[in-house]
Amino acid sequence: MSFKIFLSPPHLEANSQHYLNEAIASNWIAPIGPMLDAWEQDILIVTGRHAVLTTSGSAALELALLLLGTQAGDYVFAATHTCNATINAILHIGAIPVLIDSEPESWNLSAEFLKEAIHDFDKAGNLKRVKALIVVDIYGMPAKMEEISNLTEAYNIPILEDAAEAVGSEYRGKKAGTLGDLGVYSFNGNKIITCGGGGVLLCKTKEQAEWAKFIATQAKDKADWYQHSEIGYTYRMSNILAAIGRGQYELVEKRVARKKEIHESYLSLFHSLGLKDAFIAQKNDHAKTNYWLSVFQIRKELNVDPQSVINQLKQRGIEARRFWKPMHLQLVYRAYSYYGDNVAESLFNLGICFPSGTGMTTNEHNEVLSSLEIILKDEAL
To answer: Tell me: domain 14-251, CATH 1.10.720.60, correct?
Structure first.
């Protein structure tokens, strides 16, 4: 069955069309051009970080790890509750992931389990081989970065903030993506800001950004011919995609406000059904989320099967989905070390993501809510 209402589809508006027409008229198509320069400057103004636009968030993660000096055989600590792109970036370099469980409020990486991992690696004399910690702002909610950075600073472990899902979010008044030594956004098709595919690496210094651009553009040395002294990648975004994304980036605050409205509509529905305390939302007292997805953990006592709810919504043409399955439970990553107590596994078992597309019409939004009301009355009441 094909869906008529998707989880979080792309949402283009007129200003993207304007910049796209301008890019086409200029005949700049390749992964270089004025739209890349202009959008990178826009991002610098908003975040204070030097931006390197890439073909994907995954490419940006890989460039960030290279910038941090990560090599084959090194270790990288990373959240287990994430998309596999986070872990694959580590493996593409030949480094070894160490998977860290979540904490139960924000659902992000746990400082407690991170401390255990650091202690074990320090005791074994392997801490110098830990080149980075990847902290993921899951579903747009920033992690408890103060607790985490207090640990990493003491051991000189750089933080790479995977803010792929968190454009427009904040922590203690700072933009998500700027909370670590390096940061990454994704502009994939389902993100709050999208150009169909793409990402950005956020660097503290101009020198870091220039090196990343060099490596991401095939590492071409300055010469009148193709000359290379380093191994490079074809990781730079095209000028066409940058035009689409630049127009969307101007709408971040508008998109966040709409995502919040949608999230609160689900809370209102749960309240009206007497289920206010049965659905748990993310919490971080020092953060402002972008509500990228409307995500809730169902209390175990409610005895509602998330997959049953998802299946029934699917029968009505409405897309919902489970939480990310923890990386340490994925067959391909089971050989790697894991520190935790099955918090992320519980989130996966009891979590559900509801439609939150900013382009949903009023009728579509009402259809989702009315369908969910019928299903929950049958499942939980």
So the answer is: no
> Please, which pLDDT band fits residue 163 given cuts at 50, 70 and 90?
very high
DSSP, collapsed to helix, strand or coil, labels residue 195 as: coil
Among residues 161, 199, 168, which one has the least CA distance to residue 182?
161
CB 66 within 8 A of CB 132: no
Mean pLDDT taken over the chain: 96
Distance of alpha carbon 158 from alpha carbon 96, whole angstroms: 16
Give the span between the Cα atoms of 81 and 90, in whole angstroms: 15
Residue pair 192/259 in contact by the 8 Å Cβ criterion: yes
């490596």: which residue's tokens? 215
Predicted confidence at residue 31, as pLDDT, reads: 83
Contact 53, 30 (CB under 8 A): no
- Looking at the whole model, is its pTM more than 0.90? yes
Instruction: Flag whether pLDDT at 171 surpasses 60.
Output: yes
Looking at the domain 253-380, which fold is it? Aspartate Aminotransferase, domain 1 (3.90.1150)
Give the integer Cα–Cα distance in Å for 83 and 164: 10
Does residue 57 contact residue 87 with C-beta atoms inside 8 Å?
no
CB count within 10 Å of CB 235 equals: 24
For the chain, give every residue range classified as CATH 3.40.640.10. 14-251
pLDDT-derived band at 2 (thresholds 50, 70, 90) equals confident
